[in-house]
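REQUEST FORM: STRUCTURE PREDICTION
Request ID: SP-0412
Submitted by: Lab K.M.
Chain count: 1
Length (residues): 591
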Amino acid sequence: MRITGAQAVMKSLEMLGVDTVFGYPGGAILPAYDPMIDAGFTHVLVRHEQGAIHMAEGYAHATGRVGVCIVTSGPAATNLVTGLADANMDSVPVLAITGQVATTSIGSDAFQEADVTGITMPITKHNELVHHVERVADAIKEAYHIARSGRPGPVLVDLPKDVLNATVEWSWDDRVDLPGYKPTVRGHGKMVREALDLIAAAERPVIYAGGGLVRADAGDELYEFATQLELPVVTTLMGRGVFPDTHELAIGMPGMHGHYAAVKALQEADLLVTLGARFDDRVTGKLDAFAPLAKVIHVDVDPAEIGKNRAVDVPIVGDVKVVLGQLLRVLDDKREKGTVEALIPDTTAWRAHLAAMQTDHPLLVDQPSSGVVKPQTAIRAIHEHWGDEAVYVAGVGQHQMWAAQHIPYTRGGQWINSGGLGTMGFAVPAAIGAKAGVGPDVPVVAIDGDGCFQMTFQEIASAVQHDIPVTFCVINNGYLGMVRQWQSLFYDDRLSQVTLPQDLPDLMKLADAYGIPGFRVTTVDELDTTLTKARAITDQPVLVEFRVDPDEMVFPMVPSGASNDEILETAEEWYARAAAVKAAAAAGEDA
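STATUS: Completed
RESULT:
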């Protein structure tokens, strides 16, 4: 059967089991949009191409499957760059399909031509410009395989218009043969045994659990491993939920705005069992002062990450789900032989110390019983009404940190955010993509800031048009909150270009313009009643605006470039320390 290249694209996606595609048509990709009418998947029409890639990311985050987006050439393709970079940083499996000018016009500066494979080479796991129609099906199939295997990531296939219009004899082979691409999945047996020996000898071990565990769907294995060995667990911003916050072994989130006990746990540990984490600067703080007493076991499917930022005592290259399975099988074998106790460290005193630290250093929220709403209170109220069944998607900034801190996550994929790249505007489209993926039975709540929200709120139109019922919660403090916080703390409160008037735009009128219910919360007294009404609406998008205290800052906080030992719990601590530094400088003393 002879078909066009465009038809081959559609059939390839169908053969791969793709059920949802996010996209925007245009000249070079038009040949693909014709057979899409009869394709066996849903297409979500976005309002901006950046929305398409972030929706694909949200879909991938929430489902574990590859998110797919399709756009045209030139500016449409370049509008994907931010999302591709975001997916690359956070190891999100995304397939981007872009149109391209005809092969005979490439290099001539033709209308809407851009060197998309050149532009995206540093920010994709793999990309390809397809020159011949015979290559279309294999290019799509191989890119899809690369996106989801090994360390997941974004891939891009660029399709010239004449390739889409040309015809080919259709054939499909499920097998993928890429001799140069063989990710290591199984950990080296000797390293696995050495890791268990190192754990057995530790007195203050901590599992440093990263986003790689979420990507590998390794939550169950992590739970068994941590509970059998009684190891405390910290979960990074990208790993939130992969080990339940409600468990007694959960210490919280480490990092610049992490939970106090989690930050201190890493600093005081004598062993880090690092699983699918990359020693990001936001976690380590000043790198040479990070976890100074700890030996390191590092498990990661990407060998480039092991030893990149921190020297490692036991390196294990492999899929973290598989490696945890190997570790658990060794424990099972020892248990059958009656020798497992020799591998289980005594963490009783260490766990008691960390529990006391959690009790003594809780997250601080000074919420009056009436009047202005603190943003932390708003986020806690959101969780109280939507609960553990919901998926929570955040933008970037203060609201992101508060949502990561104050919501107890209980499963991998329940928390979705832009971690590595820190992309403002992520939440609205990513939440729509997540909801498209998880279906009608799982609520999806976007928690956004007023700055982030205004970057991509046009995608609400996509949610309305395609009946994707997301609840959009906007924490509106009238500022670019995190930028203001840094200007307040590090620039003597000299505020520069951070004001966003709360009524510009009027979000209730915006909700009305999109034809969706809108609710505004201005006082604590309105929280419960308003959120009860919003929660009851499940068949269409909803917008909830929280007018919150504009002066609230995110704490705890490790100042940028400082050691994690310098973690501060309140703004008052920062100002006191800053005053002491100034006084010492004025006296000619060392700060």
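NOTES: The two ends are 78 Å apart (CA to CA).
Reviewed by: T.R.
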